[in-house]
Fold:
Amino acid sequence: MSMLIRKERETRLRAMTLDDMEEVREVGQIAWSDLAMHDIGRKFRYPKRSERIIESYLATDPGGCIVAEMNGKIVGSAFCHVWGKVGWTGPLEVLPTYQDHGIGRMLLNVCETHLTERGCTTIGLETMSHLAKNLHFYLSSGYRPGPTTLIMEKVIRREALDSTGVREITRRDLDEGMEIVSKLSHAVNPQLDYAPEAASILSKALGNVFVIDDGEGPLGCALLHTYQRGEEAPYSSIKAVLVDPRTPEPRSVFDQLMSACETRSLEEGKTKLLTRFSPVDTRIYKVMLDRSYSLRGANLRMIKRGEYAEAGWCNITSWAG
Ligand SMILES: CC(C)(COP(=O)(O)OP(=O)(O)OC[C@H]1O[C@@H](n2cnc3c(N)ncnc32)[C@H](O)[C@@H]1OP(=O)(O)O)[C@@H](O)C(=O)NCCC(=O)NCCS
Structure:
């Protein structure tokens, strides 16, 4: 029997539990450190993924957190995310010594089945397009290339930032916050719903949810993650900025929401802010340069099923963790 078939037969996929936390964090650390070594040619030890973020994945979608086990040892893991009818997978990782034996593809297949069962009509992910292995892995699994997503970073300093029109949603206003975020998500793409992400930020204290309202309805919202404090690099990350495409001055709404994220990051003692988005309309790239963000890299969005396009040009969205 070939090594590949033997390893596939010995591999058991199951839902992750909290008891798997440490092993899953280690798998991620080892897989990404190994990838970095091959990619940049020198040793680099990746920080372990924050426990808090994995706990939030487990709380939001327990059936979408999958581990691959071989003889009682966790050798791979994958996480699914359901944002309305848009579903994506990530992170997905396999221990280097167990790679190239079909375990990654087994995990990916289970994720796709899970996302389909959860009603997702658009299924995709984001990956590093300069890695031949990753491109081959996803293309040969039926994923087609979508838009590029940019990774941009800003060093944040004390400066006067205007976010006067912005209101912060607190845990007490969770239902109201989710309703606003759903409404704005649907305005950007009818299939999209960032409400579960907003709920997880508020209920797990991962960061902040900001909204702008003109009294007649929401104009925009921003989801900020600051949870890494003490556990990882001094970064926060802007997970989403959604601006109602019918807003007459989207740039102004966007700027205020970005300022709110930057101000809060400073208050939390962060020195850098990271964000990912698709520059489908290049005006957004210019806006980010104006706000002193610099380009750090790019990923490729890959789509297995469905079509996906956003209304408006002042949005930040990414299918990556
Ligand atoms: C991506 C990853 C999860 C894949 O896991 P895996 O168990 O190795 O995946 P599989 O064995 O199912 O498939 C790997 C495929 O890549 C191919 N491959 C391996 N090295 C390659 C290379 N240098 N160039 C092109 N293809 C390559 C294998 O031949 C196999 O393809 P095949 O089934 O058509 O023969 C794993 O490599 C990993 O953990 N990488 C680090 C983290 C990462 O990049 N995660 C994905 C982020 S989006």
Q: What stands out?
A: Confidence is low (pLDDT under 50) at residues 1-5. The two ends are 38 Å apart (CA to CA).
